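Fold this: GtrA family protein
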Amino acid sequence: MILGQAGRYLVAGGLGTLAHLGLMTLCVESLGVRPVAGAVVGFAAAVGVSYALNQYWTFQSSRSPVQSFWRFLLVSILGLLMNTGMMFGLVHYLGWWYLKAQLSVILIVPATNFLLNRYWSFSTRAE
């Protein structure tokens, strides 16, 4: 079951990532937004896409959408803090190009979020 969920999570995350990268690139390249701020905007867009797919498809949670959303949002905020901190360090201290930095961060944050979402946000185990 966890492998099936992980596969669906990857698809949902991939779609969220496309929304993230697309909006971030639009903000930076077309709107002149700084890269780290663009990453925050992109991350927020990814939250909406990812929540809907994860609630109803990945985890098929019977937890109330209100309960799962606030938990998902807290996990996402933690992910945002991790994402922003790593982006800041990679771009401002190591001088990496913002897209290279974001693609590197994408390898770390989703794994953490999957575990937290599976065992907390969407879990229907007795509390």
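Helices lie at 2-31, 35-58, 65-93, 98-105, 109-121. The two ends are 21 Å apart (CA to CA).
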